[in-house]
Amino acid sequence: MGKIGIISDDLTGGTTVGTLMARSGVKTSVYFSSQEMPHEEEQEAIILTSDSRHLPAEKAQAAVYKCFQALKDSDVTYFSKRTDTTLRGGIGYEIDEMLSQMSNDTIAVMVPAMPQSNRIVVGGYSVIEGQALSETDVSKDVLTPVTESNIPKMLLKQSRHKIGELDLGTVLAGKETIKDVLRGRKAEGCKIVLCDSINLEQITKIAEAVNELNWNILAVDPGPFTQELAITRGFGKRKEENPSNNEKIALDVQTKVLVVAGSATENTKNQLNELNKYENSTMISANPSNLVNSETTQTEINTIHQTVKNKFNDPTINVVIIETAASAPVLDLKSKEEELGLQVGEASKNINLGLASIVEKALNDVNNIGGVYLTGGDTMVTTLKSLGAKGIQLIDYVIPQTDLGKIIGGPYENLFTIGKGGLTGNLFTAIQVVNKICEEYLKENMPLSGEGNIDEIIS
């Protein structure tokens, strides 16, 4: 049957598609490096992160090429390019690079919708939570703002290939019509075909049609299309999606959980502030200006670490939150870089390195931390790499794009971790995440005695 190989431009994207695969019963891991992939032979799906979202075109393509060759050497048969649900990064450049490494008759079928997260595509336009993509917070992203909602227009600025579309009417008409239109687009010389879809049933139809055509395909999507293609090809089985729940969730933890927020979105701020309302939760604010400036970085790291240690030594505290933007105005990173003579992107990098150092010190000095919740893609990858991790064995998601796994490699192997992008979730998502870490940790570590089971104990 072969293996599935997926290239993602960042870690949270890799875990998003990976948990969809894992939920379908496909053994899946995401790795940070194409040179070190422990346990790769045990996997049915291998995900590599190219860390290319913020790179210029040539460097992004070089990173994708390196990942592609590693996957090819690992006996991968089916390839996917994982895209951000908000279409950040050089998607067109990276599609072109993957197509250049595949057979000449390969067609990139792009299905950018992720209905589980209220991301849909209609008329070639990306719509998120009822808003055009360019009208959401992603237009203000510090490193990769997206100001275009029309996906073909976006791709035309990046890809050298002809782009065709498969509209919603075609999808609604069924598999045979989908196949006919795809044949037509291929005959027209289109190498990339963008497909509308507004629900999972439509994505399934597209996947089934593509599979029946038996073409050489590069799947391009945030995860659901790759998942459905895998199922139609005999990998795993479809699992019912968890219904979204906007009702209030109470914090219920009996172990220690460390929360680290590098995301500065309003959504993340609200989630953390809601989590911090509980008496057994506490928030510590790291000064981002001090983390950016090399002259004050170490002092800030040591101060925050000692505060974290003291809080965890308090028996009434289970959850410690470290944040840099939830309780104060967001630092103007561009101005700070100009003030300190730093390169573009270096301020954000320094903040994430500082947070990673604090996490490592906390794990070294505090016993029985059940897991780490990291929100913000760059924060997550920087922290896990600093901990010596080689990758993540994916388990499941809490909600779509909020992904549970265990660290692979390094001194903290098997530590539970959950990662989430800054734009994902509702007011109670952080509470839900912390509860999930505690639940999984207790299932694995709490000795049972007498009657009953762990599900009853933690309920």
Which helices and strands appear, and what pairs or packs with what?
Blueprint: E1 3-8, H1 11-23, E2 28-31, E3 45-49, H2 57-73, E4 76-82, H3 91-101, E5 107-110, E6 119-122, E7 125-128, E8 131-132, H4 151-156, E9 163-166, H5 168-173, H6 175-187, E10 192-195, H7 200-213, E11 217-221, H8 224-232, E12 256-261, H9 266-275, E13 281-285, H10 288-292, H11 297-313, E14 319-323, H12 333-340, H13 346-365, E15 369-375, H14 377-386, E16 391-399, E17 402-408, E18 416-420, H15 429-445, H16 454-458
Helix pairs in contact: 2-3, 6-7, 7-8, 11-13, 13-14
- Can you name the CATH architecture of the largest domain? 3-Layer(aba) Sandwich
Q: CATH-wise, what's the superfamily of the largest domain?
A: Putative sugar-binding, N-terminal domain
Arithmetic mean of pLDDT: 93
Number of helices: 16
Strand order of the largest sheet: 9-10-5-11-4-1-3-2-16-17-18-15-12-14-13
Largest sheet: 15 strands, mixed
CA radius of gyration is 22 Å
Number of strands: 18
- Portion of residues in beta strands equals 15-25%
Q: Spans with pLDDT under 50 lasting ≥5 residues?
A: 448-459
Structural class: alpha/beta
- At the fold tier of CATH, the topology name of the largest domain is Rossmann fold
Query: Could you name the CATH class of the largest domain?
Result: Alpha Beta
Percent range of helical residues = 25-40%
Supply the number of structural domains: 2
Bulk shape: globular
Distance between the termini: 40 Å
